[in-house]
Write a structure and sequence with these properties.
This protein has nine helices and eight strands. With about 230 residues, the protein is an alpha/beta fold. The structure holds 2'-deoxycytidine-5'-monophosphate.
Length: about 230
């Protein structure tokens, strides 16, 4: 049987991918696949193990943790080697480490099959950095979601303040620019606009406006029957 469609959303940190992909998935009754969470989970595990920062130290397959995503009461829980790390991985430190380790071929190769397995039946909105280029090159609809650095810094700042964290704009901007550099300049699966992707700049658009626009593209490209029925 033909699988249901796969929709990819790639873009830099802070462009709004997580929020938008969750809403788009919910409108389509699709599953949302947050692939950044998988890289964050590996980064968290390596940090707990006192990883020494070298690629050689993770060549050993036993260092690759077992990761699963559990959908629970409308929320996705990230489980690594049996531990629920969903909240622990949402820090700037783990985000930066995830970006660093995501340049390592062993890590990317291991997560490639995990991501494809999770999306095997289709009906998925997959968000990350290489969704439309490497992981799901045959996806039915591809988006590249972007926003200005200024806007991304502002959003990240407000998000962290709302969590009660003490942060300043300069540190956030530095971290974001470092992450952009690491994600765009790595030699394997760098962040680029996938061929055929619809580029959406969310800088001056509200979340509902972006989701409505994406929905209109999905409805145009995929016949509704394909999206909503197995
Ligand atoms: O989307 P995020 O901020 O949770 O992702 C954390 C890091 O993981 C990101 O800076 C780079 C890496 N990543 C990746 O290399 N490829 C993906 N498909 C998703 C994330």
């Amino acid at each position: 049987m033909k699988r249901r469609p796969i929709i990819t959303i790639d873009g830099p940190a802070g462009a709004g991918k997580s929020t938008i992909s969750k809403l788009l998935a919910s409108r389509l009754s699709f599953v949302c696949l947050d692939t950044g969470a998988l890289y964050r989970a590996v980064a968290y595990r390596l940090k707990c193990e006192g990883w020494n920062g070298t690629a050689g130290a993770i060549a050993d397959p036993v260092r690759h943790p077992k990761i699963s995503l559990m959908h629970q009461a409308g929320r996705v829980r990230v489980i690594v080697d049996g531990e629920d790390v969903s909240d622990k991985i949402r820090t700037e430190e783990i985000g930066l480490l995830a970006s660093k380790i995501s340049a390592l071929p062993q890590i990317r190769e291991n997560l490639l099959s995990v991501q494809r397995e999770l999306a095997a039946a289709g009906g998925v909105v997959a968000e990350g950095r290489d969704m439309g280029t490497v992981v799901f090159p045959d996806a039915e609809v591809k988006f590249f979601l972007d926003a200005s650095v200024e806007e991304r810094v502002k959003r990240r700042y407000l998000e962290m303040i709302s969590k009660g964290e003490r942060v300043n704009l300069t540190d956030i901007e530095n971290d974001l620019l470092l992450r952009d550099r690491q994600d765009c300049e790595r030699s394997i699966a760098p962040l680029v606009i996938p061929e055929g992707a619809f580029v959406v700049d969310s800088s001056n658009q509200s979340i509902p406006q972006v989701v409505d626009f994406m929905m209109s593209i999905v409805e145009r490209v995929c016949p509704l029957r394909e999206c909503f029925f197995t």
